[in-house]
Amino acid sequence: MSEEKRESLNFIEQIIEDDIRNGVNHGRVLTRFPPEPNGYLHIGHAKAICINFGVAQKYGGKTNLRFDDTNPATEETEYVDSIINDIKWLGFEWNGPVLYTSDYFDQLYSFAINLIQKGLAYVDDSTPDEIAAMKGTPGVAGKDSVYKSRSIDENLDLFHRMKNGEFEDGSRVLRANIDMTSPNMLMRDPIIYRIKKEHHHRSGDKWCIYPMYDFAHGQSDSIENITNSLCSLEFIHHRPVYDWFIEKLGIFPSKQTEFARMNVEYMITSKRKLLKLVQENFVSGWDDPRMPTISGMRRRGFPAEAIRNFCDKAGVAKRENTIEISLLDACVREELNKTSLRAMVVLDPIKVIITNYPIGRSELLMAENNPEDAHAGHREMQFGREIYIEREDFMEDAPPKYFRMTPGADVRLKNAYILHCTGVENDEEGNVKNILVTYYPNSKSGEDVSGIKPKGTLHWVNAEDALPCEVRMYDKLFTVPDPTMDDDKDFLEFYNQDSLLTLQNSLMESSLNNSKSGTQYQFIRHGYFCTDPDSTPGKMIFNKTVGLKDSFVKEVKK
Question: Which residues does the annotation mark as catalytic?
Answer without folding.
Answer: 36, 261, 271
